[in-house]
Here is the input.
Amino acid sequence: MATALKDFKWVGTRAVRPDGVEKVTGRAKFGADFSLPGMLIGKVLRSPHAHAKIKSINIEAARTLNGVKAIITGSDFNELPSEWVPAGEVQINFRDLSRSIMARNKVLFEGHPVAAVAATSEIIAREALALIKVEYEILPHVIDVEAAMSPDAPILHEDLFTAGVEPSPKTASNIAKRVDYSSGNIDDGFKEADVIIEKHFTTQPVHQGYIEPHATVASASEDGQCSIWTSTQGQYVVRAYCSEVLQLDISSIRVTPSEIGGGFGGKTTVYLEPLALALSKKAFRPVKMVMSREEVFRSSGPTSGSSMKIKIGARSDGTITAADVELKYQAGAFPGSPIMPGCMCALAPYNISNAKVVGYDVVVNRPKVVAYRAPGAPISEYAVECVINEIATKLNIDPLDIREKNAAKEGTRALYGPQFGAIGYIETLLAARGSNHYKSKLHENQGRGVASGFWFNIGGESCATININTDGTAELVLGNPDIGGSRASLAMIAAEALGIDYNKVHPIISDTSGLGYNFLTGGSRTTFAGGLAVNEAAEDVVRQIRERASKIWDIPEEAVTWEDGFVRPAGTNAGNFEPLSLADVAGMAAKTGGPISGHAQLNAQGAGPGFGTHICDVEVDEETGRVTILRYTVVQDVGKAIHPSYVEGQMQGGASQGIGWALNEEYIYDEEGKLQNAGFLDYRIPVASDLPMIDTIIVEVPNPRHPYGVKGVGEVPIVPPMAAVAGAIADAIGVHLTDLPMSPPRILKELNKKQ
Amino acid sequence: MKTHITTTVNGEPEEFLCETEQTLLDILRDELNLTGSKEGCSSGDCGACSIILNGRLVCACLVLAVEAEGQKIETIEGMADGEELHPLQKNFLKDAALQCGICTPGFLIAAKALLEKNLNPTEKEVRYWLAGNLCRCTGYDKIIRSVLNTAEEMRRK
Amino acid sequence: MVKVILTESLAKKYTSGETQITIEANTIQKLFVNLNERYPGINKALNHEGISVVIDGEIFQDALYERLEGVSEICFIPRIGGG
Ligand code: FES
Ligand code: FES
Here is the structure.
């Protein structure tokens, strides 16, 4: 195995990505770019109400409209048992998933699908939707998490009883679950504290905001074979979910991932795929479905909004003595907010002896939340980081110093159980302190904030195949959609391990039939786990090359060595033969035993946890309340950057999403529980003129469990920005804000209060 | 009733039939199979559908197909000159100015329109010019740098 | 013998508050059986929404057949997905 310290030929370079030309010329096929002959267009009828009983659905008029080929409603779906079953790495309640993509007796959020139509044109499909008559009985609804927890709140699910409380409750509740973690004794801890800060925070749900709306084409044939082309973070996950929801054999479904125009967690589930497939199964023609931007906002994503109480105590030297954290996360219409990781991450960067974290998973009449970059972590860590910043201010300690004093390091036991291994948190703090940014001076109305963040990073199931062609070039078959340069990073690993030119490795993303199961692109796992699989497949190739060379030279296999892309006899005893390159051996493959093809299938373990620290400078306009980000630096331990440009890209992209979360993004609901800002005009994600350049400092503390030292990268960068921005605003105006987003009206209100 | 429209697309004469409510983006993508222009919002807010219409940068989702009569349309598919990529395309690759790539055609077209007007833009000018193009992946940093690099390179030529 | 670390809430419910227990087992599978024998019901609680096993600080998503020779510490955490 290569070691993380060796000099590499490809790993660590900024090679041009193999799929690049396709993407700058408009050739690359994304979800909506795919078409089939005879294709129908599918459209979804969505609930106009936040909460209502469906009394009846009449599809007669729509069915008889010329050009309508199929209609489905809730009655076309099997009822599935309500249980949490493993689906790849995560647990899924398929009854809830099925009900969330198509309502049964009740609609639970505005935008909840109630029927879908496939017709010969989009215009006819829309006409058909207008002809479907749904009779609703409107029920009281609840949007806010605190309101949903109150005993007299409208109940979403009559069969939902709070898990995790003793004795088990007898009445239904919107609180799906209570979880807690604790260690030591917080009362004793607070007694030791010289300063205690207790604050209440709220955050808004935010959408992943991928620029490509969900899009899919499904085609079912008369013999039961089904094909799906779709924009997804995991073709195997789409296959598994469709097979469960529609009760089909896994092998009858083949899913081909298109290029994916952003996901950030939002494309780790299914919305349209089972509907398109069910329609195609009725019409026996391919069905294409594409969401509008409005549908994306009303019915997909987001991540949880929250209400949180944080109390932290510290001695005057900055040592944190106790932390008491209470988190309430909105799950949307069905249980399953990221409250668990929220609880686990809240205090993870710190070594705190007395701590308690309690979390609640709460259903509300909004779309079911779905993963968004480090799901759960940015919310709780934002609140905790804000309080730590405030303690630092109070004690007049540098915010990086207070973090360093309390930082988790190798051997620190996290509140949720395990001890950390080789983590690089302190290294990020030191790098931040040493940066030019941190040393620079600020002017009037300007402020600086810092914050840190943690995410676990995961491994999981990955497969790879490397087919060596007779000219020594290689096809690299991968199982994870390439969402931001993973073809490049994995081809670099293959080139490195095979000792061949990067440009001779041709990576392709396989459909579900080409490789064994791969978990999805997410959890910051693709370069880590995929890299392990590619490395192992390359080792398999090398083993075969040595075996072939031993045949050619007629010497034992052990007497053949592999180095820098060549097989050589091991010493003079083995014989006196000229070294052979991979291409030389590949050219003789047919004569020496057939094609050379390396495979690996594994369940990657040992993903190294990720830590980052951000520095943010802002200027606050006292007249308008507008916050301008003047300068921003992202520092992160990535283990080893395989392709530094795409590592930086993840850091910059995550930071800007976090800045949007901090300053602008929120869902606005009216009295009736209807979303008022379902478009990019009013749901304002950061644009180029809102941001400065985002500087990056890559810290490399190698992951001992990876041949190249890789840790996950993609998720940590969205964790620190909200608190870093809040800290900068506090530094500028002297007020510690506690509600997101920190939009101009909110800032103005605080400024007025101050005067 | 469909309307018959005659236009020029990327230098080639092109004709098509369209309904009055169809946008130029619908026609480009669904009728002419030019799927390089993307639909991110269909309301003029994301810029993924940016094209150049008679020398002017527009959102194809805001133009009705019938308005294209007699007009000259340039799309991402016409940006490279044979096997020679446009300097912006080359630099976007070199500078890693794309991650998922869905916004890339729109940014390239918009940046090309900018550099045709102003080959010496400041960072601020680039940021404001491209403020109508949304990118959720990159944080814009590498895109802005790449446009500035290209401008400098083209000035030197 | 391996040390098993339990969360306080699990401990309250199943081990009369004991958060660190030592138990004999050569695989994770055997560990579950032995734990459940000593603390009936704990198996189901651990498996409720799927867990990952942390073996000496390293998270294993699927660890049922991992061997425990030379291992000193085990804990359980919920499965982590990601965005
Ligand atoms: S699709 Fe035209 S601006 Fe978004
Ligand atoms: S690269 Fe993904 S939206 Fe810009």
User: Anything to note?
Assistant: The pocket of FE2/S2 (inorganic) cluster (ligand 1) is lined by residues B 39-42, 44-49, 59, 61 (CB under 6 Å). Chains B and C do not touch (no CB pair under 8 Å). The longest helix of chain B spans residues 141-156. Chain B has two domains: 3-77, 87-156.
